[in-house]
Design brief:
alpha/beta, seven-stranded mixed sheet, 4 helices, 31% strand
């Protein structure tokens, strides 16, 4: 089995919250990023834009992360926005009808945020199942200090 990297970053811009995911959004990402996503959404009452441009893989657990955002937005009487990613991620979005739950954008509505690219942050060496990485060091300080990137090694 191979290795995968996934991450979550967020920043507030005016009254909006921009949340970016990167890498493989699967069950491993759900377990690690779910609590961080809840923390980012906690108390936020404004619009949310989700940036999927750096997502390389999306499965049912990744869809659950996105639906958590939409549930929060629906409770506030609005729809979240998704910034479309790779074609295979967009295909999954269509299959599960996420485009009916979110407003889907092809490009950012304003100046795009600094976004960690898929696979960025991976390092070699002995690690446990999940190792938090320092995103600022990996991306030249361009990532929010609250960003989290994780590296996982699949069982052999």
């Amino acid at each position: 089995m191979g290795e995968g990297v996934f991450g979550l970053w967020h920043r507030r811009t005016g009254g909006a919250l921009v949340i970016g995911f990167s890498g493989e959004l699967d069950v491993w990402a759900w377990e690690q990023l779910g609590p961080l996503l809840a923390e980012a959404l906690d108390g936020h009452r404004g619009p949310v834009l989700v940036d999927l441009r750096a997502v390389t893989f999306l499965d049912a657990s990744g869809v659950k992360l996105l639906l958590r955002i939409q549930r929060q937005q629906a409770c506030l009487g609005r729809r979240g926005q998704l910034l479309r990613g790779e074609p295979r991620v967009t295909k999954v979005m269509r299959l599960v009808r996420l485009e009916q739950e979110f407003d889907v954008l092809d490009r950012p509505p304003a100046e795009p945020p600094d976004t960690p690219r898929a696979g960025a942050g991976a390092v070699e060496g002995p690690v446990g199942p999940v190792l938090p990485l320092a995103p600022e060091a990996e991306h030249g300080g361009r990532v929010s200090p609250r960003a989290r990137l994780y590296r996982r090694r699949s069982p052999a």
